[in-house]
Every structure is written in C-alpha cells, then in structure tokens.
C-alpha cells in the first residue's frame, strides 16, 4: 500500500512532475522503426511523457522528431506533406527539416521568421529496430545506452509496439510479478485440469499458448518452449532480490527437490529491471526485452523485443503472444483496442478449458492492466509476501526520483552498455549456491570499480 502522495509521484510523468523530470533524463523509445519505415512516408503522430510529437523519415532517410503542432498557428504536422527533404504544414505550407529548421514560409516573404525561430525538435537515434529520442534538458543529454540486441542481424529480432490504455506503472508492476505467470497465463488453477495439462511438453488446454518444452524447442507447431519450462507452475516462489546500479534484479526460486548430488536444489529464473522503464523476461528461446514507456499518464507504449540466436518468425511470435486477433491489435496500428461493451473481448464460453478466456499472454496482461482503471489507486491495496518485487520496484523508482530531485543522477543513467545484463531462464542450482553468480554482469553493470573515478 502506498500513500496517495507516493502514488501520484510514481504515476505522473508530465514535464512538471518529479517522475517526469527523472524520465526526461534518459533517451527513450518514441517509435518502432516499422512505423516510419519509408522515406517520405506518412508522419507518425505519437506522445511521449505527455508531449505531442511527430516522427518522420525524410526523402534521404533521415529521421526527425518534432513537436506535433506547427510553430505558426498550431496545425498538426501529422497531416503534413512529407516530401523533398522536409515536412510541410498543410495550412500555410511552412516547411521544416528534420532538425526543425524552417526552410519555406509561403505566406511570409521575408526571411526573418525563418532565421529567428525553429520548430521545436529533438535528437533522434535509430537502433535495434526502434527510434529513440531525448526530450530532456539539452545541457544534460546523456550518452546513448546500448542494449544487447543492437549489434545483432535484424532478422534475429522482432520488435512489437502495443499502445496500452493504462498507466505505465501497472504494466511495469505486472512485469515483476512472478506469481501471476503461473496463474493468469496458465490453465493450472482448476484442479481438474492440472494433471492433464501437458501433452508433448505444451499445454493441451489453451490451444498452445507457448508454455512448456525445452530450451530452443519450438515444438511441432512452432510454439512450445518459447517462453519457459514447467517449473513456472509453482505459484508461490521464494524471491531473491538484489539492488543494482540501474534498478534491481530478482530471482524467482522454485523448489525442485534434490539435484543429482542429493543436495536441496531450486530452479532459478532471473529478471533484471533496468530503469526507468525496461526489463528482460526470462524465456527459453530468446532474450525478451520489454519497455513500458508513458505516452500519457493513462496510455503506455509497451515495446516488446524478442532477440534470439537465429532468425525469428514475427507471425509465430504475434500468434503466441495472443496478438493475432485483429480486433484487438495490429502490427501496423499498434493500438490495443478493447471495450467493456464486450467485457474487453473475453470469451466466457472458452473458460471451461481456458483459464482467462483470452487468447494469450500479451492480451491477458493488457486487459488486466486496463481492468484496474487507468491509474491504480494504490492506497486501497492489500499486498502479500509474493508482491515483494512489486514493492521493490516502487521503492527503487522513488529512490531514483529522489536522487534526481536532489541534483544527482537517477539510477541507470550512467550505464552506457547493457550488453552484459541478461535474463536467466529456469536453471537448477543447489540452494547453497548464490543465484547472482548465474549472471555476474547483472550485478556488475554500472558499478563503479574501485580505483576508477567516482561517478
Ligand atoms: S499553421 Fe502551419 S504553416 Fe500556418
Ligand atoms: Fe503477464
């Protein structure tokens, strides 16, 4: 449970809020590259931390991120003509280059306006199939942070964007809530289903949501084993949590009896959480990155990145995530659309064999976040021990906000390379071993090494 004030601090991300100021210290994703793939294509109208932006690719392939509303009289540049090296406002034809320079003002012959003002613009970098921008104070612009999939061949990763109508924090909390995975996303809670739930390493109850199987085994229909193995079905794992320089990492620790030496053992799944908005979900077939980026306080751009060791099949991933139903989401459109008019699309008739009545994990996560109201009232919760990672997420975010408000660097800002931060899918180790040894890079990334200058 939080105080009303803490809940406000955590969930409000506009320019005059503590969280908004903290998040503005970072480069953040503003689009998936496929949304503005073509030179001179349609500009993308989007939002980031409450700011209205337009993203476009000019004739030469350069990217621009501009304020959406024309500096002249505020028409939306998302309607503009994108041609001949710039974006032209429809209303009076003012033309802007990628950095906001005004090159034509048809209704004003003198050059004085062109020389004096610009359309507000932001720096932009395309990396890893995503378009990143920095909307904070130019004097504080940090180095661009590198993630593990940036250097991979583009066919080895898939990027999906889902605009979810809910505050970023309830989606982020879902991402660190290990206990829900074996409940919401499974068919294991009905006692009558439990014993019969597996056939050939995948569930037989859900039309193949992609659970079960061995690492790298996609199964006959290409789905089984992509995500995680059966150890996830213990709903009350012990949690190990370690604070890191960039946030924290946690391990879900599930009893597996004894290992081959007869020592007590458990299966470990490690999730690193990289502030202000990222995490990596343990999955067998890939490193599965998720970023929960506030568009507004009530709308979140969720970016999913599936990075495997070989070529990835986007359609299989979309299907497995429960996103293949075009009524709810399309790859091109990105908006998650569900309405209480039909109970957010829940199929009650399927619930004699499907726990949730929804098609798969991303659809389930989206509707649950929506169902909580746009911004959860966290003064009314009743938390239990398995919510410990959720509590840590909030505490560390508040720590990071406090550091920034005091004039310091928020958590994670000085990390330049996240390549050594990884999720660890189910791995059995003796209980006497230290789970943090499974991914030393998670503990060490961003740490100041003794002898180096303090950050
Ligand atoms: S409003 Fe854009 S040119 Fe006039
Ligand atoms: Fe989930």
Describe it:
By secondary structure, the chain is α+β, with helices and mostly antiparallel strands. It has two domains: 27-140, Rieske Iron-sulfur Protein, CATH 2.102.10; 154-444, Naphthalene 1,2-dioxygenase Alpha Subunit, Chain A, domain 1 (Alpha-Beta Complex), CATH 3.90.380. The protein is built from ten helices and 21 strands. It has helices at 4-11, 18-23, 112-116, 168-175, 178-181, 191-194, 314-320, 361-371, 388-405, 440-444, and strands at 28-32, 44-48, 51-57, 63-67, 81-83, 86-88, 95-96, 102-104, 121-122, 124-127, 130-133, 157-164, 198-199, 202-203, 238-244, 247-258, 264-274, 278-281, 287-296, 299-307, 424-430. Fe (ii) ion binds at residues 174, 180, 185, 361, 365. FE2/S2 (inorganic) cluster is lined by residues 70, 72-73, 75, 89, 91-92, 94.
């Amino acid at each position: 449970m939080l105080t009303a004030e803490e809940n406000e601090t955590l969930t409000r991300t506009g320019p005059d809020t503590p969280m908004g100021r903290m998040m503005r210290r970072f480069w953040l994703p503003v689009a998936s590259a496929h949304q503005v793939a073509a030179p001179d294509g349609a500009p993308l109208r989007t939002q980031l931390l409450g700011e209205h932006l337009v993203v476009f690719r000019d004739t030469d392939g350069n990217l621009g991120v501009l304020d959406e509303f024309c500096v002249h009289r505020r028409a939306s540049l998302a309607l503009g003509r994108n041609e001949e090296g710039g974006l032209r406002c429809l209303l009076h034809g003012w033309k802007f280059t990628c950095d906001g320079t005004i090159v034509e003002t048809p209704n004003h012959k003198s050059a004085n306006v062109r020389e004096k003002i610009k359309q507000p613009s932001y720096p932009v970098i395309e990396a890893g199939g995503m378009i990143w921008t920095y909307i904070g104070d130019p004097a504080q612009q940090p180095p661009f942070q590198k993630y593990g999939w940036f250097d991979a061949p583009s066919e080895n990763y898939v990027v999906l964007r889902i605009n979810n109508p809910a505050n970023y924090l309830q989606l982020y909390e879902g991402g660190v809530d290990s206990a829900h995975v074996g409940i919401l996303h499974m068919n294991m809670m009905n006692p009558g289903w439990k014993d019969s739930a597996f056939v050939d390493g995948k569930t037989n109850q859900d039309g193949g949501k992609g659970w079960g199987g061995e690492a790298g085994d996609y199964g006959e229909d290409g789905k089984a084993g992509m995500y995680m193995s059966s150890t996830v079905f213990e709903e009350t794992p012990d949690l190990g949590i370690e604070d890191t320089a960039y946030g924290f990492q946690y391990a879900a620790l599930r009893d597996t009896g004894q290992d081959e030496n007869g020592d007590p053992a458990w299966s470990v799944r490690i999730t690193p959480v990289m502030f202000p908005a990222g995490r990596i979900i343990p999955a067998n077939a890939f490193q599965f990155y998720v970023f929960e980026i506030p568009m507004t306080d009530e709308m979140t751009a969720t970016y999913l990145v599936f990075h495997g060791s070989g070529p990835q099949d986007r359609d299989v991933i979309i299907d497995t995530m429960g996103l293949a139903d075009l009524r709810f989401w399309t790859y091109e459109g990105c908006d998650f659309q569900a309405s209480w008019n039909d109970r957010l699309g829940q199929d009650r008739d399927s619930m004699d064999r499907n726990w949730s009545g929804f098609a798969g994990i991303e659809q389930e996560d989206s509707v649950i976040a929506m169902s909580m109201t746009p911004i959860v009232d966290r003064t009314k919760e009743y938390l239990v021990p398995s919510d410990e990672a959720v509590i840590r997420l909030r505490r560390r975010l508040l720590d990071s906000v406090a550091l920034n408000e005091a004039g310091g660097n928020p958590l994670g800002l000085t990390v330049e390379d996240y390549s050594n931060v990884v999720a660890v899918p189910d791995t059995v180790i003796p209980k006497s071993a230290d789970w943090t040894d499974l991914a030393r890079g998670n503990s060490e990334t961003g740490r100041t090494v003794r002898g180096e200058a303090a950050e």
